[in-house]
Amino acid sequence: MNLLAIDTSNQVMTVTACQDEKALGQIQLNFSKNHSTTLMPAISSLMETIHLKPHDLTRIVVAKGPGSYTGLRIGVTTAKTLAWTLKSELVGVSSLAVVAAQCKFFDGLIIPIFDARRKNVYSGAYKWKKGRFLQVIKDQHIAIKQWLTLLQQMAEPVLFVGEDASLFLEEITEFFSEAAVCKERTINIPNGLSLAQLGMEQQPVEDIHGFLPAYLKLVEAEEKWLETHNDEGKNYVERI
After folding, report:
1. What is the pLDDT of residue 34?
2. Rounded distance between C-alpha atoms, residue 160 and residue 85, angstroms
3. CA distance linking residue 218 with residue 13, whole number of Å
4. What is the spatial distance between Cα 195 and Cα 99, in angstroms, rounded to a whole number?
5. Domain annotation for the chain: domains and CATH numbers
6. How far apart are CA 209 and CA 226, in angstroms?
7. 192 vs 218, residue with greater confidence
8. Side-chain-side CA neighbours of residue 205 (13 Å)
9. Sheet (strand 59-65) strand order
10. In Å, how far from its chain's centre is CA 110?
C-alpha cells in the first residue's frame, strides 16, 4: 500500500508518505501560514523527492477534524480530489486521535485538548490497551468544566495532551490535583506518521463525494443567525 497522509486541521501542517509500514518521507510545518498556499507544493515536493508518482498512491488519509474550519476544508477538499481523480481509497481520521495515539507510553485515559474558545474545548477520551488504540468517549465540543466533571467520574489516571492543554491548566488542576499534563512538544503537536498509522488501520469511506469534515460545531456566523431566527433555525438544524 502506498499511502499519503495529510493534516491541515490546525496550525501544524503535515504531509507524510508511507509504503506499507515503511515511512518514506514527511514534511511538517508549524507556523502561521495559509495552508492553501503550502499544501500542494509540499505534496509535490515530497512525491518528487521520494520518486513516487501520483498514480502510485493507493490510499489517501486525511485528518478530518475537529480543528480550524478553513484548515479542515483545505485538507479534506484536497484529499477528496486526489482520491477521486487517482481512484484511490480515502480514509478520514480524527485530528484528536492523531495526537492521543502518540501517547502509547501512558496507562490510563488520554485526553487530547484543542481550544474552542470561550472556555470550550474539542476533546475526546482514548486509551492504549494491549497494543490496541481505543476510543473511550467520542470527540465533542464541550465546556471545559463540564468535560472535566465527566472525566473525574471515570476514576482513572488521566493524561492531558496537545499544545492547547496548557491553556486550561488552572481548570485541570482544580479537578485533578495529580493530573498529568504533557509538556513534551514533539508529542503535543500532530505527527504525520501517527496519522498514517491510524489511516492504515481504518476502513476507507464508501462515498468520497459525501465525505465531510468533522467540525463538531457551527461556525460563529451560523450560531448568531440561529439565535435571531429561532423557528427557522430549528428547521435548519433538523435538516442538517
Report:
1. 86
2. 39
3. 23
4. 9
5. 2-95+191-220 (3.30.420.40), 103-188 (3.30.420.40)
6. 27
7. 192
8. 21
9. 22-30, 12-19, 2-7, 59-65, 89-94
10. 14
The three cell numbers of residue 207 are: 462515498
5 neighbors 91 (Cβ within 8 angstroms): no
Query: Which of 28-37, 105-114, 174-183, 214-223 is predicted with the least confidence, judged by mean pLDDT?
Result: 214-223
Residue 80 neighbours by CB under 8 Å, 6+ apart: 90, 208, 209, 211
Instruction: Please tell me the distance from the alpha carbon of residue 215 to that of residue 65, in angstroms, as a whole number.
Output: 6
Listed residue (92, 83, 3) closest to 46, CA to CA: 3
Residue 54's closest CA among 85, 77, 30? 85
pLDDT per position as a tens digit, 128-179: 999 999 999 999 999 999 999 999 999 899 999 999 999 999 999 999 987 7
| 196: exposed, middle or buried (Cβ count in 10 Å: 0-12, 13-18, 19+) | buried
The candidate with the shortest Cα–Cα distance to 75, out of 211, 197, 186, 194, is 211
3-state helix, strand and coil shares in percent for the chain, rounded to the nearest 5: 40, 30, 30
Spatial contact of 101 and 126, defined as CB atoms under 8 Å apart: yes
The helix (run of H) or strand (run of E) holding residue 137 is strand 132-143
The SS3 assignment for 73 reads helix
Element (H, E) at 61: strand 59-65
d(CA 108, CA 128): 8
pTM: 0.90
